[in-house]
Amino acid sequence: MAEKSIEINGLTKKYGQHVAVDNLTLSIDKGEIFGLLGPNGAGKSTTILMLLGLTEVDSGSVKVCGIDTTRHPLEVKRKVGYLPEDVGFYNDYTGLQNLLYVARLNNIPLEQAQKTALRTLAEVGLEEEMDKKVASYSRGMRQRLGLADVLIKNPEVIILDEPTLGLDPEGVKKFLQLIVELSRKKGITVLFSSHHLHQVQQLCDRVGIFVKGKLLAEGKISSLAEQLFSKNTFTLEGGITPMDENPNQASDSLEEVVNKMKRIKEVSLVEVDKDHFVVESKKDVSAELSRLIVNSGYGLAYLTKKKYGLDDIYHQYFQEEEKRI
Ligand SMILES: Nc1ncnc2c1ncn2[C@@H]1O[C@H](COP(=O)(O)OP(=O)(O)OP(=O)(O)O)[C@@H](O)[C@H]1O
Predict the structure, then answer these.
(1) Tens digits of per-residue pLDDT, 94-131?
(2) What pLDDT, in 10s, does the model give residues 150-181?
(3) Domains in the chain and their CATH numbers?
(4) Distance from the CA of 89 to the center of ligand 1, in angstroms?
(5) Could you tell me which PROSITE patterns the record lists for this protein (predicted)?
(6) Longest CA span, the chain
(7) What is the spatial distance between Cα 189 and Cα 296, in angstroms, rounded to a whole number?
(8) Are 216 and 320 in contact (CB under 8 A)?
(9) Which mutation among 12, 13, 15 tests ligand 1's pocket best, with the greatest number of atoms within 8 A of CB?
């Protein structure tokens, strides 16, 4: 069995009557990049604070690298690097000076700190900017320096809370690539908290969908789709056209064609809008559908199997949640 970096069991946190995190159970393997995905107020930051031992737990347990954070928060902090949304720096210091300051706070001896700082700044792509004052840094450069702050203590786990806010699309792409490279190269476990579906999809091995304090689903994106769409696994979309070449050929009415489609055993839903149709079914019925359409005197303009992405999954879970409330 894979070694676990993060083990959360029945974790609950209340603010007064409000349950911010509700009986959360989750484990993350060593070296894995896990995405905690949810809208604002879902409880992501509260979970992270509990992981870091920065806020009290009402019930349940959290272990990071095998250490209980509620009992030994300082030991956990030594092993975990945390990058919040917005990192504070000394603007009058250079990037290198800021990093050396963080190294000192982490009790890294000066000589070692200098070597490690230079290497880390190169790793995050700031070697050419390290002697410039942070006041002149762009948002992207500040986030890279934030990542260097996190990496300098050689963490086993890094936790990133909405780290790409305010970055332009190119900056986001580079930042995400950097995280993947570093995680793979150093075997670092990453917990990436975000409400950006596409970023999570690009970066993460596994995803947890978190809404109103509850983990609604977790798994690989492909298996989330299976869990969610298991009732009607296949969605086929097609275009139907009249047979122009042979106008005298008798055709069924469109209504009759739809009724025939509905009579295919595995089909659970047929929707038609002008010449476009959507069929949901328990197995792939593309062959039956094409035969049926052609035999009814129509042409098939296209027939495609819809692939579910994270967007579909995310919205479906949100819809489910809204229905329950
Ligand atoms: N210190 C606090 N006191 C009272 N309520 C709080 C406190 N911190 C968070 N909350 C509430 O707990 C819920 C979860 O908040 P949390 O910040 O963990 O969510 P989030 O998913 O990280 O969202 P965001 O991305 O907006 O930070 C919210 O309803 C929030 O208002």
Answers:
(1) 999 999 999 999 889 999 999 999 999 999 999 999 99
(2) 999 999 999 999 888 888 888 888 889 989 99
(3) 4-228 (3.40.50.300), 234-305 (3.30.70.100)
(4) 24
(5) ABC_TRANSPORTER_2
(6) 90
(7) 57
(8) yes
(9) 15
